[in-house]
Structures are given as C-alpha cells and as structure tokens.
Amino acid sequence: MRSVLPTELARGQTVIVYARWLLVLVGLLVAVWNPDSLPQLRIQVGVILLVAIANFVMHAQLLRRRPTIQAVAYGASLGDLLVVSLLVASQGGFGSNTFVFFFPAVLAIAVAFPTPQAAGLSIMGVCLASLVGIVGAKNVDELVLRALAIGAVAVIGNAYWRLHRARIRPNASPTRDDAQDLFWGQVATLYARWAVVLGGALLVLSRAVTTSELAFGIMPVIILLIVNFYLHGRYLMERPANSMLTLIASALDLALVGGLYLAWSGPGGLANPLFVLLYPLVFAVGLVFPPRLSWAYTAASLGLYSVLVVASGINGERDLKMLVVRLATLAAMGGLGGVYWRIVRRESRSNASDETQSPKLAWQSASAG
Fold first, then answer.
1. For range 329-345, the mean pLDDT
2. What is the 3-state secondary structure (H, E, C) of 38-64?
3. 304 and 250 in a common domain
C-alpha cells in the first residue's frame, strides 16, 4: 500500500488528471444546462464536486512532483468509472448521454497503467457501461457497439503504451522520432479501423430489412476491410504505410463512417448510434501524428459529425445539449491523445540527451588522461 508509482506510471497520471477535469467541467455543464429534477441534480452536482476535490489533491501532488501511492492511483481510476456509472444510472441508463464519459476515462487508464492493471480496469469499465446501459436499452446491438468502441479505446491506448517501452527508442533527431512513431504507432490506427469494421458490420447485418439495404449499407464496411487488410499486411511485414498514405487512410475512415451514418436504416440524427466509432479513430490519430495534424483531424471529425446531425435536424435545447457534450468528449479524445504524445516525446528527448551526454563525458575523461 505504501509503494509509489514509478516514472512510467507517473507520466500517465497527468493524462488521468486532465481527463478527470474534463469529467468535472462537462459534468457540470450537463447538470446545470437544462437540468433534470431537483433530486437528480443534487446527486449529480454533489458527486461532481467530490471528484473535483479529489482531483485537485492529485493535481497538487503532480505539480509538487510528489509520487502517488499505487493503491491510491488504482482506486481513483476505479472511482472514476463508478462515478460515470452513477451519473448514467441517475439519468435513466441507456438513454443517458453521459455514457460518453466512459471513453476519456478508459483512455486515461489505458495509457497510465501496465497491461494487467489496465486490462482489469478497462474490463470493469466495459462491464459497468454495459450493466448501466441495460436499463432502458431497446436494442442489444447498440449496447454491444458501445462496449466494442470503449474496448477498442482501451486496446489502442495500451498497445501504444507497450510499444513505447518495447520497440520505440529515444533519439535526438525529431525527424527520426516522427518516423518511429509512425512506423510502430501505426498499430493504433489499424486497431481503430478494425473496430469500425466490426461495429459497422454488426449494425448493418442486424438492422438491414431488405437485400438492397444490406448491400448498400455493407459497402463502406467492405471498403474499410480491404484497406485495412492491405495496411495491416504491410505492417506485419514491417513495411508500413508512409505518413501520407496513413493520413489518406485515416481520412477515408472518416468518409466511410459518414457513409455508414447515411446508410443507417434506423433513426437518424443524434439517435444514430454509429457516432461512437469516431472516438477510437480520433484517439488513434492523436497517438500517431504530431498535434498539428491530429488536432486538424479531430476538428474534421467534429465538423463531420456536426454536419450529419444538423442536417438531420435538432429539436430543442435538449438535443443541442446532447450534441455539445458529444463534441466536447470527442474533442477531448484527440486532445488527450496529443497530450500523451507530447509527454512521451518530451521524456524521450530528455532520455536521448542524457544518453548522448554520458558517452561524451567518458570520452573527454579518457582523452584528458
């Protein structure tokens, strides 16, 4: 219980703290904008304030460069999942829009802890999201789609966490660092694309009522499947796509998710469940590319979803509130991915500088002798 976090785990706590502040700010927005009944509002505001106080304490520890006790870090992350679950349950379960808070919460866990702990907490997150979502759920396939998207975020984040410790080596050259991030980190975009393929296929196959609907709806899935087979094959042969091809493939991902959205035979607008597939896509690009590119991609995703929803019509202030919450959490996925990218790159540069300076000092000492 007294053991403290090593450096690799401590850096992930920064992402967790930022994700928790997001939960506090957007949670307050959800609570006070077009609020629910007074008893529900009391619960929501009280829980959010408790989270804010706890996060202030952890943030103060980081600012003072004090180590965090491991048990406290694990317990706080589990508490985040329980808080989100409580908020979702208090707002009716499946119909609550606050389920999207599970995405940044699981993202932070995936990049902050070693694989066994991250897997355990992420599985708890998926189970909690499914458990509270069962209440009021009309279609099991939409619940499975949510679980798939949340699980994909966990897999993407921790796969990147492992790569930066197993294969990516610090270098003094920014160009070489970019090449390594793209070479090895491409697995994040590949996993995100597989999630889109599986999720899109699930909904199309379960909801199509005519052969023409099935044929039209499955076309974007087939195109993504072919593209990812090609790119994943190159990756396994250690001949992954270059930066331009990866960006084009990521842009195609957005376009085809939009195609799936338009081909959806169920209710349109905010009721369309396919928007959850944007979360792993935006997060993956945030891990692989520098912020100037990943933020542009995030902005394009926000613009695409806004256009699709507005074109279908927004009815009243409640719909506008739902759209704002989804856009805020989607933007946070790209932002948190970029924050982790910067943290890892900064520490890699620092380690590379230390490694290059040490041999130089030894050489100078030998020359002096």
1. 86
2. HHHHHHHHHHHHHHHHHHHHHHHHHHC
3. yes
**128 in the same domain as 191:** no
| 57 and 117 both lie in a single domain | yes
Tokens of 115: 């694989």
Q: C-alpha distances in angstroms, 270 versus 213, 265, 309?
A: 21, 14, 6
Do residues 87 and 1 both lie within one domain? yes
- CA gyration radius, the chain: 22
CA distances from 62 to 17, 58, 59, 171, 229 (A): 9, 6, 5, 26, 42
Domain containing residue 25: 1-138
Q: Report the alpha-carbon distance of residue 143 to residue 206 in Å, rounded.
A: 13
pLDDT at res. 277: 94
Q: What does the alpha-carbon distance between residue 67 and residue 142 come to, in Å, rounded to a whole number?
A: 41
User: 204 and 310 share a domain?
Assistant: yes
Q: Residue 157's closest CA among 272, 288, 55?
A: 288
Q: Are residues 6 and 122 in the same domain?
A: yes
**Predicted confidence band at 360 (pLDDT cuts at 50, 70, 90)?**
very low
CB 199 within 8 A of CB 274: yes
The SS3 assignment for 272 reads: coil
- φ/ψ region of 238 (left if φ > 0, alpha if ψ in -120 to 50, else beta) reads left
Q: Answer yes or no: do 61 and 185 share one domain.
A: no
Quote the pTM value.
0.85
Among the ranges given (196-200, 277-281, 335-339, 357-361), the one the predictor scored with the smallest mean pLDDT: 357-361
